[in-house]
């Protein structure tokens, strides 16, 4: 082979190697900007950002959204590594971190009020707390509504073992209610709106909060994902703060036909007419409020500790953590505030 031909072949080979390396790097970079997020059907403003693709637009990431029926299911998926960012309530979150799962709260999405409620069936003859004794009440176990139900029974001095408490996921609750199998249920949307049509609200999580047992909804992340993708969490916190701020400023004027309400209803599977009143019953902290002492700056960790202690008393947990501070971080909201 002559020298000129050999040099040409070497040049082509070298160019091919460079091209392959560039393509490989591009594929690796693209794969690195993919995240799976577990969400639920709760009524809250981040559904607007989800419906409009605002998270993808701001972060540049491809997001695979996975719907779960309960926070416990979200936590289980995060424990397995299938989900990197998730939306869950304070009760399953407390149980998860107490059991040592590598997750941390980075944004408090909502301080739950009337968006979660105990509904009793019309004709069930439940008019006072004592009337719950002997009745069948459904609730997703290890959920915020489960915690609220047990806290309410304790507040009313009604022994939990005197009430038949059934472990049903929200879709199962709606089906059991339709069949007439249960007398009541403590649940959230869209099941809440469905059963409320033939029932009455007995109490809400806003009442339980006043009695000293508050619940909240949070965005949480796996710690390994947080370490390798802090940029995504900063972007996510910023966008979530923006939709919460928009609700704080304009939500009082939203109606069933408002685009924001229609977006929330579409993602949550709810009736648009149910969305505005449920939004009004809950508080959605702003980005600027997140690092404060009542939230990520200390309050959230304290609430997780209190919730875990209650769950231990109810025999739902065997041990407690000495400190819940390491399970909460304000780092990403602080960076988002600076942008």
From TrEMBL:
Residues 1-30 form the signal peptide. Residues 34-251 form the Solute-binding protein family 3/N-terminal domain. Keywords: Signal. It is found in: Periplasm. GO terms for molecular function: transmembrane transporter activity. Its main location: periplasm. One of its GO terms (biological process) is alkanesulfonate transmembrane transport. GO terms for cellular component: ATP-binding cassette (ABC) transporter complex; periplasmic space. Belongs to the bacterial solute-binding protein SsuA/TauA family. This is Taurine ABC transporter substrate-binding protein. It comes from Pararobbsia silviterrae.
